[in-house]
Amino acid sequence: MERREIIDRIIAAAIAIGLWFYVISVVNPPTTVTIRQVPVTLLNEDYLSESKLAIAGDGKYTVDVELSGKRKDLILTQADLTATADLNGLLPGQNYITVKVTSPGNTTVEEIRTEKIQVYVDELVASEKPVELAILNVPAGTELSAIELDYDTISVSGAKSLVDMVDRILVTVDAADMAVDEPERMQLAVTPVDTEGNTVKAVNMSHPYVTLSSTLYTVKSVPLYTRVDGEPGMGLELMSSNIPSSVSIKGTLLDLAKINYIDAEPLDIEGITANAELEVVPILPDGVELSAENGSMVATFTLSEQGQVTLESDTDAVVVENIPEDLEAALSGESVPLTVMVKGSIADITDIAAEDIVLFADLSGIIEPGEYEIPISGRSADGKDIEVAAVPASVTVTVTAVETETEEDAEETPEGE
After folding, report:
1. DSSP letters spanning 124-142
2. What is the C-alpha to C-alpha distance for residues 123 and 52, in angstroms, rounded to an integer?
3. What CA–CA distance (Å, rounded) separates 201 from 208?
4. Burial (0-12, 13-18, 19+ Cβ within 10 Å), 159
5. What 3-state class would DSSP assign to 237?
6. Which residue has the higher pLDDT, 405 or 272?
């Protein structure tokens, strides 16, 4: 490109810029401009609190404002405009209030979009919510201990619809920044959350921070020894048991180095009549705690399905059954005490009593008079599936022939007698 052509182009550009500055500075034609998302300042918020009302939201509103004026006067930002809305006189429920905008001199507000903002007003309430600690980034083989928060609950206030959404106050601590065995005291921010852990905004809290005191301890697993005392009741047998054989503990490195095993408090199964779950309680040395890794420390005991109870009776309760037609029978001798053993399912023998058992001597097979030792048998009076045994195991039964009247005896008997 020739030198002359370059000079011409520079001169043309300079003339164009000069004309533009002339138009802007001297001619300055009128025009319009839209300033977007101008924040709205809410007036008379004290009216709502005095009326025990609150805005159900964050109270942050914006409007778009169209201005007219000379071009150079419209070189403005959001900060150059003032938008206000008056809350005085609002009632619970949905409200629409007018936004007013003022702009610098030599400019005119042509349009406000949207001129009326929607404000939902609710009852102002306060409610205590529980504080929950969330521990993040715990180094492997360690665990927080001696955890103390200076507040268990925090009061949440604001619009009822929002306060009701708050399930708990979440506090988060990053354990990766903590030193092992060194007591820590730190101030942590709190966050109101709903049942799904989402932050609930536009509520006020009585305490924006809580203080956490804790120590990061080392975790160690050691054998756990548990003694079992007693026997199941009602003659039941212990079929199986499942008792934790190890336990995770936490403490300082110095304290843990002294521990090779832990004893637990003895478990008492004396007289149990059903499968049982018993809490295992480790006996911990001073300065040592259970680790959360253990979960539920429970020992389970499974019993046999059949049990036995012992009842007291006597031979007077024994009935004679299946006596042949031409014979008669009766127990011999005086009444003798009986010990009656009843076996069956726990459901059938629980609360069973002597009167619920039929004791009998079966004369099936006896065909002639005499004195016999007959085994004592038993059954449930209401048909339950049980086994019955007695001590002594038998009774003496005297069997005699039934006396019948002969023809000769009938002839000797006078009429009318």
Report:
1. EEEEEEEEEEEEE-PPTTE
2. 6
3. 13
4. buried
5. coil
6. 272
Calculate mean pLDDT across residues 302-311: 90
| Residue closest to 302 by CA, chosen among 274, 344, 342 | 274
44: its two tokens: 């008379």
The rounded distance, in Å, linking the Cα atoms of 20 and 14 is: 10
- Phi/psi zone of residue 234: left (φ > 0), alpha (ψ -120 to 50 degrees), beta? left
Identify the pLDDT of residue 417: 47
Closest by Cα among 169, 167, 131, 168 to 149: 131
Q: Which of 292, 222, 305, 304 is nearest to 264 (CA)?
A: 222
pLDDT above 50 for 67? yes
Amino acid at 132: E
Biggest CA–CA distance in the chain, Å, is 179
Q: What global pTM score does this model have?
A: 0.58
Residue 78 has pLDDT above 90, yes or no: yes
Indicate the SS3 state at residue 331: strand
Asked whether 118 and 96 are in contact (CB, 8 A), the reply is yes
Q: How many residues does the chain have?
A: 417
For 382: left if phi > 0, alpha if psi spans -120 to 50, otherwise beta; the answer is alpha
Q: How buried is 107 (Cβ within 10 angstroms: 0-12 exposed, 13-18 middle, 19+ buried)? A: buried
Contacts of residue 207, defined as CB under 8 A and 6 or more positions apart, other chains included, come to: 151, 154, 190
Please give the radius of gyration of the chain, using alpha carbons only, rounded to the nearest integer.
48
What percentage of the chain carries pLDDT values higher than 90? 77
User: Which domains are assigned to the chain?
Assistant: 24-114 (2.170.120.30), 125-216 (2.170.120.40), 220-305 (2.170.120.40), 307-401 (2.170.120.30)
